[in-house]
Amino acid sequence: MIISKIKFGRFFRGVLTPFLVSVSCLVGEKSKAIELENTQPGNAVRGEMIVRDISKVTCLICHEFPNIDAPNQGLIGPSLAGIGDKMTAAQLRRRVANSQSINSTTVMPPYFRKDGLYRVSQEYVGTTIYTVQQLEDVVAYLSSLTNE
Amino acid sequence: MQKFDFILMTIIKSLLKNKLSKSFILILVIGFAFYGVVEGPSAEEKKEEPVSGYFFLDQSVRELQDDYFLNPGSFFVDLGEKLWVKNVGGSKLSCSSCHGSAEQSMRGVAAKYPIYDLKNHKLINLEQKINQMLVEQMQASPLAYESRDLLSLTAYIARQSSGIPLQVKRAPEAENLYSAGREFFHTRRGQLNLSCANCHEDLVGQKLRGDKISQGQINGFPMYRLMWQDMTSRHRMFEWCNSSLRAEPYPLGSPEYLALEYFLAIRGNGLSYESPSVRR
Q: Beta strands B223-225 and B277-279: pairing type?
């Protein structure tokens, strides 16, 4: 829009702007592909740190973790003791990423969702609470919570 | 089955043998019939009965609120009392020039806000009413939301409603605004994708980390929030709640927050106004 107001208007509007737009899309796609390519298998130690992290909407707000030494763990969701026995990694991933896809009335926030959200704040719009790597790490950690 | 019938008949026959037991049975039957009527509200109705946030506080915080000299909000009330008699603006009038003693003229006033202004066809809350007076009646500048002076004046006026039940009028002309407020309350928003109702209706009394979730009533504003070591208006609270969900808040004094305030105040009608209130 602004580009079109420059004196070389026609050239910019007709050629340069569409070129820049399509390149930026490719850059966006490329960075997404790079992100997925660089994702390591989940690391449970990192996963526990993410679970405790207040800046990442810590799970402790609503859930009790048997092995985490932190006060006042939430009692809103079920306790996650032994959850690694009860669910597969795929089931855990789906619930962490977007629990509302299973139960639309749940109060569990979606940790890996961008679409269909209303009025996300400027700071976070277009992002997910967890990155792909963080999601994998958290799933790995949850999978490690077994009764052995 | 036959044996059961026989035993039952025997019991009934023996019970009906004398007048005393007959009348006793009659009383029992009538008693159960009235049970539903006299017992009180149903489980569903009980759930909707408004309860002040006061009752979700730890005892130590309640004590801070109850004792005026310990209550951190009382500084703002005291400042409001001084501002009430201060001459301002081109008019060189003070609030007391027209309204006299606040204890008399402002008694029960805060408990009625927000009000639907029929002349201007919009909602007006207490903060906006104060500013309307300053600008229109006293030729003074309006006070900014969350400014010390506006919080103090609001707190002082609210203090004159202390102990008086909330009685915000649900004007028929403002029904669409009430509905807008109610819809706001039930709309999921933000990256966390939660609505006010998800917590303040469905999870009341449950523990979010160490905090007991309240009904989110607004009978205690402006409120001294310990987390901020500061006084807060209703709209600042809404802004914080929205931001906590990583949702874009609305400006303080916006039509959206006014509609929400209107709905919430009506929802809490009957609750005793608490001023200054203290919350975590």
A: parallel
Domain that holds residue B123: 53-279
Query: In angstroms, how far is CA A114 from the centroid of its own chain?
Result: 9
Nearest alpha carbon to residue B233 among B169, B143, B173, B160: B143
Q: What are phi and psi of B279, to 5 degrees?
A: -135, 165
Q: Do B191 and A61 touch (CB under 8 A)?
A: no
Other Cβ atoms less than 10 A from the Cβ of B246: the count is: 24
The 10 Å Cβ neighbour count of residue A91 is 15
Residue B252 lies in a domain: yes
- The DSSP bridge partners found for residue B211 are B208
Query: Which residue ranges form the domains of chain A, and what is each CATH number?
Result: 1-38 (no CATH), 41-143 (1.10.760.10)
Interface contact flag, A72 B194, Cβ < 8 Å: no
The per-residue pLDDT for range A119-145, each reduced to its tens digit, is 999 999 999 999 999 999 999 999 999
Structure tokens at A60: 């402790």
Q: How far apart are CA A75 and CA A60, in angstroms?
A: 9
Total structural domains within chain B: 1
**10-residue stretch averages of pLDDT, chain B, 280 residues long:** 70 70 70 52 54 96 96 98 96 96 97 96 97 96 97 98 97 97 98 97 91 95 96 98 97 98 98 96
Q: What is the pTM of this model?
A: 0.81
Q: Which of A132, A8, A115, A91 is nearest to B191 (CA)?
A: A115
Residue to mutate among B227, B246, B257, with most A CBs inside 10 A, is B246
- Euclidean distance between CA atoms B78 and B88, whole angstroms: 18
Q: Which of B95, B196, B199, B241 is catalytic?
A: B241
Residues of B in contact with A122 (CB under 8 A): 248
Nearest-by-Cβ selection for A74 from B194, B207, B246 = B207
Which CA distances in Å does B69 have to B65, B81, B157? 9, 15, 18
Measured CB to CB, residues of chain B less than 8 Å from chain A are 187-194, 198-199, 202-203, 206-210, 243, 246-249
Residue B15 lies in a domain: no
- ipTM, two decimals, is 0.79
Q: Which residues contact A39 (CB under 8 A, 6 or more apart)?
A: A132, A133, A136
Distance between terminal CA atoms of chain A? Answer: 62
B203 neighbourhood in chain A, CB within 8 Å: 76, 107
B241 is catalytic: yes
* Phi, psi torsion values for B165, nearest 5 degrees: -70, 145
Q: How far is B229 from chain A (nearest CA, A)?
A: 21
